[in-house]
């Protein structure tokens, strides 16, 4: 038996394991996006810059349905609010008041999909998402 080959196996296994851990860390960093990163992605998809004032109007208006975004998040989403139907506590939506907001693109998409369906009866467009997120990022303490 070649002693050199035997001693190389644990080293190779450790190298492969370390590479796997590094790949997982990179993937987690990619998920920890900043609100500005997500805003940039929506504006790129929309092909136009976000218009924060349009986002505020969109957020507070009813779009032919029972609720607006503000129905659950409050007209100024800088404080905790309560869901209009369930009464469940909802933490502030504006990123400056809740640093966990808009840090996970998959979670952001999930909630945009759900909430836009409740408010509009359809998914929001990239431009609508950009406008709303653009407005939310202007809200500062």
Which superfamily, in CATH terms, is the homologous superfamily of the largest domain? Cytochrome c-like domain
Major sheet: 2 strands, antiparallel
Helical/strand content category: mainly alpha
Total beta-strand segments: 2
Strand content: under 5%
Number of helices: 6
Low-pLDDT segments, ≥5 res? 14-31
- CATH structural fold name of the largest domain: Cytochrome Bc1 Complex, Chain D, domain 2
Tally of structural domains: 2
Give an overview in words.
- By secondary structure, this protein is mainly alpha-helical.
- Helix 2 (35-46) packs antiparallel against helix 6 (126-136) and helix 3 packs across helix 6.
- The protein folds into two domains: 1-31; 34-136, Orthogonal Bundle (Cytochrome Bc1 Complex, Chain D, domain 2).
- Helices cover 57% and strands 3% of the residues.
- The model is unreliable at 14-31 (pLDDT under 50).
- Strands 1-2 form a two-stranded antiparallel sheet.
- The longest helix is centred in the first third of the chain and has 29 residues, at 3-31.
């Amino acid at each position: 038996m070649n002693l050199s080959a035997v001693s190389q196996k644990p080293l190779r296994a450790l190298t492969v394991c370390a590479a796997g851990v590094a790949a997982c860390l990179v993937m987690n960093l990619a998920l920890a996006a900043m609100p500005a990163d997500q805003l940039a992605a929506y504006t790129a998809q929309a092909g136009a810059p976000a218009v924060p004032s349009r986002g505020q109007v969109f957020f507070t208006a009813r779009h032919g349905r029972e609720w607006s975004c503000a129905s659950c998040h409050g007209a100024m989403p800088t404080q905790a609010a309560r869901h209009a139907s369930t009464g469940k506590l909802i933490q502030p939506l504006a990123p400056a008041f809740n640093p966990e907001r808009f840090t996970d693109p998959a979670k952001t998409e999930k909630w945009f999909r759900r909430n836009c369906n409740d408010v509009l009866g359809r998914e929001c467009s990239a431009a609508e998402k950009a406008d709303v997120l653009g407005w939310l990022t202007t809200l500062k303490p």
